[in-house]
Amino acid sequence: MLHDRILVALDKDSSERRSASGIVIPATAVMGKRLAWADVVAAGPNVRQVGVGDRVLFDPEDRAEVEVNAKDYILLRERDVHAVAEPETTDSSTGLYL
């Protein structure tokens, strides 16, 4: 990866969604602007906020798709990322300081 580019893999769950009542909404259904989650596979040397393995939120309309080794990925600039998900903590502490 060069400069501030990020290579991400889309979640498998992002293609179809379920409504609150359990109705399956296909990926082809037109809805308002909806952001998508993806996992970072590679990052360029000038990327500061995101690392490999992070889960990022981005606008799927502003993307460039690429196929590498028969897998589909999306190429983004770091500035196109809206959020980075905080990893789940496996620490069982209460977070209180005594």
Characterize the main sheet. Answer: 6 strands, antiparallel
Low-confidence stretches: none
Task: Calculate the mean pLDDT score and round it.
Answer: 78
The CATH superfamily label reads GroES chaperonin
CATH topology: 10 Kd Chaperonin, Protein Cpn10, Chain O
Number of domains: 1
Structural class: mainly beta
Number of helices: 0
Instruction: Supply Rg.
Output: 16 Å
The SSE string, one letter per element, is EEEEEEEE
Question: What is the strand arrangement across the widest sheet?
Answer: 6-7-1-4-5-8
Separation, N- and C-terminal Cα atoms: 46 Å
Break the fold down into its secondary structure elements and pairings.
Layout: E1 5-10, E2 17-18, E3 24-25, E4 36-43, E5 55-58, E6 64-68, E7 71-77, E8 81-84
Antiparallel strand pairs: 1-4, 1-7, 2-3, 4-5, 5-8, 6-7
Outline of the structure:
The chain has strands at 5-10, 17-18, 24-25, 36-43, 55-58, 64-68, 71-77, 81-84.
Task: Outline the structure in words.
- The N and C termini lie far apart (46 Å).
- The strands form two sheets. This protein has a six-stranded antiparallel β-sheet, with no helix packed on it.
- The protein has strands spanning 5-10, 17-18, 24-25, 36-43, 55-58, 64-68, 71-77, 81-84.
- 0% of the residues lie in helices and 39% in strands.
- It has one domain (5-84): GroES chaperonin (10 Kd Chaperonin, Protein Cpn10, Chain O), CATH 2.30.33.
- It is built from no helices and eight strands.
- A hairpin with a 5-residue loop joins strand 2 and strand 3 (24-25).
- With 98 residues, the chain is mainly beta.
